[in-house]
Structures are given as C-alpha cells and as structure tokens.
Amino acid sequence: MYTPKHNRMEDRATLLAYMRAYSFATLATCGPSGVTATHLPFVIEEQGGGITLLAHMAKANPQWRDFAAGAEALVIFMQPHAYVSPRLYDSRQNVPTWNYVAVHAYGRPALIEERAAKLELQQKLIRQHDADYLAQMAELPESYIDAKLAAIVSFSLAATRIEARYKLSQDKNPAERERIARALEAGGEGVAAETARLMRKHNP
Length: 204
Description:
Helix content: 25-40%
Number of strands: 9
Largest sheet: 5 strands, antiparallel
Radius of gyration: 20 Å
Strand content: 25-35%
Number of helices: 6
Structural class: alpha+beta
Distance between the termini: 24 Å
Shape: elongated
Order of helices and strands: HEEEEEEEHHHEEHH
C-alpha cells in the first residue's frame, strides 16, 4: 500500500485497537481462478508475541481452496472514511480529496479443522458481538451445531507484516484541520463524524 511517511502508523496498540473496532474486513487471495475477495468478520488476537486473525467462511465458497498453495493472503480493514472539500482549505488552489484509515494485514491462512477449535472460534466471535446469545447457543442440539460447523471453513492467519495508512490531513495546518473536522462532524453521518474523531486523535 502506498503510504507517505506522514500517513504511516506503526504503533502496535493503536493498530490492534483499530482492527478490533473495525473487524469486518476483506480477505483477498490469489489462486487458479485469479484474485478472489470475501468480506468476513474477524477475531483479532495477540498470540506468541504476534497478531493473529481468526475467521470462517462458507464451505461452499471456493476461496478457501486457495489456502492449499501456501501463498500470502491479504486482509484489508478500511473504515472510516470521508470526502474532504477543497472549500475548507486556506488557498483556493486545491482539489478534492478523501480522508481515511486503512490497515493491511498479510500472512498465510491455515485451516482450523478440529471440531473443538472451530466451535471455540465461533464462541469467540459471538462473544465479541452478541455475548447474550451464548446461553441460547449452549442449549442447541449437538447435531445442529455439528451440521453448522460442517458447513463452514475456519482458519487463522498469523500476520507476517501489517501496513497502515492514516490519511487524516496531517499535511494541513491546524486551522485547516479543525475546519475539516468541524465540517465532517456537521455532516451528521456517523462515518464522517468518526473520521473527524480520528483526525483530532491522531493530529497534534
């Protein structure tokens, strides 16, 4: 990912928090049929001093067969983002742009095939998004759970490198950045307001 120096983010804690906050990401792989992408919810964990991404997809989705080649895959996290009008700059000689945060995690996916491990991953995902459902899930017939687990492919991806671009008007002066942040907040859209929040957090 092209990332100018002033847009780079390398702080591990910041990246972990970001990926966990925006954990619905895109898995891209390359296989015999070319490049394939699937949008998936991820669980982000620190394991053995590294960062591991855990997810699953439908077994009917042929993308998981790309894993067998052992090629590097890419998981793209990209939220939030917002249009920035050139009307907000001091100089009239400016053009429109877009503020955004994007994190790319690279690694080789590995299948999780043991039933207990697959079930544990599903429980982690549910705990992350709907913890109250766990009690109801525990009452489901084992045959029903087994059928659901058989219909998915679970996998882990130990990140070998992570690239992040925080494009948040760092190259603009404080007055312009404040003007942009206020305009995004005034827009009333959650994603724009969240972009403004990150602008304030990551700019001096």
